[in-house]
Amino acid sequence: LPVVFLLLLGVVQVALVVRDQLLVQHAAREGARAAAVSAAPGTAASAAARRVLAPARLGSEAVAASTGATTVRVTVRAVTHTDVPLVGALIGDVAHEATAEMVLEPP
Hints:
With 107 residues, the protein is of the alpha+beta class. Helix content is 49%, strand content 27%. The chain contains three helices and three strands; from the N terminus they run H-H-E-E-H-E. The chain has helices spanning 2-36, 41-53, 88-91; strands spanning 59-67, 71-80, 94-103. Strands 1-2-3 form a three-stranded antiparallel sheet, covered by helices on one side. Strand 1 (59-67) and strand 2 form a beta hairpin. The protein is elongated. The N and C termini lie far apart (60 Å).
């Protein structure tokens, strides 16, 4: 029974890590969408990405936006603190990174 309990806690921790990776990817896409139609792409990308990530309370969030001639690229980095009892310490913190690129549109 204790082994089954540990296994279930491990599944919960992995699910939380996967959820956070999906949130980071979604934040990168939202940041790129906002930056593609804004006159200030860096500010718009950062605000949009942080709005998506705010409910998750991830650690060490970083949003970077770069514009080319016709595209904008947004990269979001965050860290998941693995804190599920008993198994969180075994897995360690997980770093996530996602990049999204969109065509610039006139603001």
